[in-house]
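Consider the following assembly input.
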Amino acid sequence: MPAQPYGLIATFDSAAAIYHAAEQVRDAGYRRWDCITPCPVHGLDGAMGVKRSLVPRISLAGGITGFCTGMSLIYWTGAINYKLTVGGKPLFSPMFAFPISYELTILFTAFATIGGMFLLNNLPMHHHPVLKYDHIARGLDDQFFVVIETADPKFDSKLTRDLLEQAGGKNIAELET
Amino acid sequence: MSTAEHTADAPAILSEVKPAVLPRAVLVGHGRSFSWITEKICGIIEDKTPRWWWICFAVAAFVASWTVMGLTYLVSTGVGVWGHHTPINWAWDIVNFVFWIGIGHAGTLISAILCLLRQKWRTSINRAAEAMTIFAVVCAAIFPVFHVGRIWFAVLPGWLFPFPNANDIWQNFRSPLEWDVFAVSTYGTVSVLFWYVGLIPDLAILRDRFYAAGNKTRSFLYGLFAMGWRGSNRHWSNYEMAYMILAGISTPLVLSVHTIVSFDFAVSLIPGWHTTIFPPYFVAGAIFSGFGMVLTLMLPLRAVYKLEDLITQYHIDCMCKITLATGTIVGYAYAMEFFIAWYGANPNESFAFINRAFGHYAWAYWIMISCNVITPQLFWFKKVRANTALVWVLSIFVNVGMWFERFVIIVTSLARDYLPSSWGYYSPSIVEIFTFFGTFGVFSVLFLLFIRFLPIMPMAELKAVTPQGDPHSGADGHH
């Protein structure tokens, strides 16, 4: 028995076309599917039913960690590890510790944001069935694809193909795993 | 998309009042298609290395060698090879540091602040401007790191970074100089990360194109950094959110960096430095100088690679206007410093400013005024902005003027402080001169490598601002 293909891929020519196709696939109740676009298409998240990204929560955690790191670094070095009075100033004050904590907040937020983005996107993933598609280069250049996975519970090789055709998809092809 | 469906959604009042349709500025000229953008930008990398590139690269590498030699001599001999002496113990090193770090700020302004303000014209220039930021930070970092002489002391036993020294004493975290270490290193790191995130989709395009062309090595290298990007919209969703957050945190970052740089001076007690106007004044000056440098770099790039459809006259107008606005703020700050010196009735402060304009360094002061206050005012005129060669020349004046601004602030104040017995006059040594001019070579080498090997414009972002990238724009004939 030949291996089950990864899914079906259909080509669309414009941002508007994929926007409407995405609405139809979403309304048909598919869950394991995706759009491949050369640029972020405004409103496509809504048309696909993609929920708001979780990246901000990871960023916030990073930011809080950064701020606490800055404050505790300065508190521990100045008020615990080596107490040294400079210019009669207190050993620790959140005032003078603020600029460094502020910078570290930003630094840690940046790392958390990027780390979070990669984590949520399951990247790096250098091998993926979509990347094996012959015309994938066009998908990053000027074409738009809809991919519906065979792993989707609603997947049916005929019905799914019909849906994609009806939505205006061209060159519908199977993707190898 | 059908027009009828939209008309049905629109409030009925619209048909009565008939609102005027305001044309938006065209960001990509001649209605260029997606594939034209891809071909244009990737073509720059895929074509054979042009001869002018090799010539520029050789010259830049030669100039960069001055910095290498200057620094080698400094480390092997000692900081005495620079022209510093009491009372001018800070001079070209910090002038050059502030100059370069300021240049970087325009890149972050374009990539972050204009992104948050939804200024779509930023897209064609943001990649190169961010590259400029990173390379400017590299050039800036040379000076604080090397001014400690034995550079290994910068890290361990941390004269700059937080490691205890030989007596187990930590850095003085009360000092703005220590804040500066954190500000600048955070700035450099976040700028690199932001730049890299923007590059990911474009690296994926190059990966696929080099693969199709049979160049497996380059495909592998671009692919390694593209992280397996495949243009999935589920990825774009997280990606765009991450990009927006990075823009959101880079905005307070860029403002804080030059604020902290200005604290290096403002927190001291030297007349001419000890002023509260410094943070906003420094930030405006940084953006002003940075836009000067963006124009200096982008205009030749536009001409050489024939990018007139991507960097249109509208883009140049926008950049000139920001230069004009920030240059005017800087001019206002110069005037306000004088006013406060008089109004504050502190004789030392008044003296410092009169000395700046009419003392031994008056020549530097008037170069600064003519370059920074007079030059940008020419950008009021449309004819000036439309004359690309003239804009380029004026942008050079802005660069020169902003270097002199830092020189005037730092050196004139130190040369004439409270004690007349310790007054002095500073001239740079030959080592300093070569080290500084060499940094332009370092910067150019890095920038030339960038335009040769990386996409100089963000293709995905450019596509997103074209009419056909917007599902609701009706690029297929409606509206």
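The mean pLDDT of chain A is 87. Ask yourself how this observation constrains the way the partners meet.
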